[in-house]
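Let's practice the habit of predicting before peeking. Look at the sequence and jot down your guess about where helices and strands might fall. Then scroll down.
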Amino acid sequence: MYVKHLTDCAQIRAGDNSLLREIINPRGEKINIHYSLAWVKVAPHKKTLRHTLTATEVYYIVRGTGRMHINNEKKNVRENDTIYIPQNAVQYIENTGETDLEFLCIVDPAWQPAVEHVFIDKANEE
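Done guessing? Here is the structure:
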């Protein structure tokens, strides 16, 4: 049986500038899965940097409200919403609320540095 508590996962500043705890990733653990799972937090009135992944992603909003941007689309999201992000989509999420925006992120195939590209440009400073 494999069980891991969220607080046993190191919190880091991710490439997209969110706070992240990688819960499970087959790269570093002896488990037979092809995806990774992370917990992510974005502070009130902040947003992640625009980025793409060569993998698909699914976000599940655990707490808070936000606005999801995927390519040229944007949609308000809230607790219990699930968001599918296709591979290579330009994406970011902004916290539109007064409390932390928290969500789970599944990446398939599993996240690794080579699958992510973060854009550093004026659009990130809006």
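How did you do? The first strand starts at residue 11 and ends at 13.
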